[in-house]
Specification:
Largest sheet: 5 strands, mixed
Distance between the termini: 62 Å
Number of strands: 5
Number of helices: 13
Radius of gyration: 25 Å
Length: 339
């Protein structure tokens, strides 16, 4: 009886959410050492800076210089770079087309530049004619050109409809409409390739299209369990012969002769070492590169597509990935110069 009372008193002394603290996984707190706190404070303040300017390359190439009148119609007045630049600014500030037109014209007025922004109808029509296939700004600083690891993942982007709060308040049953954004992210958080598909497309069916344009040597490939299929292993092995493929097997997966080598290896190692030990042994944590990229996309650009047409939505997604790459390259340049 005395022992039971002591145990109960000990349990009451421990906070409820810390009762199983001794049985949990304990990770050391990551300590980031800054050499210059003044510079670090200034970099945080710059995140709220609203200074906007256009480079001389964009200004010089704003209009099409050699317009050819071949009888097929009026040639384009604005260059593809001008359309791309306006849509970049539009996505960063989450502006509709008409507000984007007014914003760019006011920017030209402040810069005292004799240029005119394309009209909202031109911006909408020319978007799907950009024919972008991969995100821009894929090459970081010279020290970061090599790709040592990539991570593949996908997430949903809402197309149209009411928000969840509106649906729940007014008891509206609406069919969910979203598109899938597929990304390939390297170990420097640069999005190397992307694709936008409908919600019914299987993740593993897009792997070949995602890895095809990557010509650099890759040594490590990670993905989640949705990509655990033999065609995925075959595609990655054919594209990157020296890469270590780390994909957790699906529930009930068994090793057999028909499986690829790396798939059987992952199944056997998980049975022998366990999931946590296998993840540490094979650096499965590098899959966070793709998770962080999707998180950055939704937090910075939003979890909703602005365009209505699917062809425009695909171009919008590629431009969004290009924006994230540009932001990351600026960060990599500053880190390399200061630390």
């Amino acid at each position: 009886m005395l022992i039971l009372q002591l145990n109960l008193a000990k349990r009451e002394a421990i906070m409820p959410f810390k009762y199983n603290q001794s049985h949990r996984h304990h990770f050391k707190k990551q300590m980031t050492k800054f050499q210059d706190w003044k510079y670090y404070n200034q970099s945080l303040k710059k995140r709220g800076d609203m200074s906007i300017w256009l480079s001389h390359d964009v200004i010089d190439q704003w209009y099409v210089k050699d317009r050819v009148y071949d009888g097929s119609g009026t040639p384009n007045l604005y260059s593809a770079m001008a359309i791309f630049t306006v849509h970049e600014i539009r996505q960063v500030f989450k502006l509709p087309l008409r507000q984007s037109e007014g914003f760019i014209n006011s920017l030209f007025k402040l810069m005292n530049i004799d240029l005119q922004c394309p009209s909202y109808s031109v911006l909408s029509k020319r978007l799907k004619k950009l024919n972008l296939t991969r995100p821009f700004y894929r090459q970081a600083h010279a020290a970061y050109k090599d790709i040592k690891a990539i991570a593949i993942d996908s997430s949903g982007l809402k197309c149209f409809g009411y928000e969840e709060w509106h649906l729940e308040k007014y008891k509206i049953q609406e069919k969910k409409a979203y598109k899938k954004l597929h990304l390939v992210v390297d170990h420097h958080h640069i999005i190397q390739s992307s694709d936008l598909t409908d919600s019914h497309t299987q993740d593993q069916s897009v792997v070949k299209k995602l890895v095809q344009p990557i010509y650099e040597k890759v040594k490590h490939v990670t993905a989640d369990g949705a990509y655990d299929t033999n065609p995925t292993y075959k595609t990655i092995t054919k594209k990157f012969p020296c890469a270590d493929i780390v994909i957790p097997p699906q529930k009930g997966a068994q090793d057999n002769k028909e499986n690829e080598f790396y798939r059987n290896r992952n199944i056997l190692e998980i049975k022998y070492y366990g999931h946590m030990a296998w993840q540490r042994r094979r650096d499965y944590g590098k899959r966070n590169y793709s998770e962080l990229a999707i998180q950055r996309y939704k937090r910075i650009l939003g979890n909703k597509l602005h365009a209505r047409d699917f062809a425009r939505q695909k171009q919008e997604a590629i431009i969004g990935c290009s924006i994230l790459n540009k932001m990351m390259l600026i960060t990599l340049g500053e880190i390399r110069q200061k630390f």
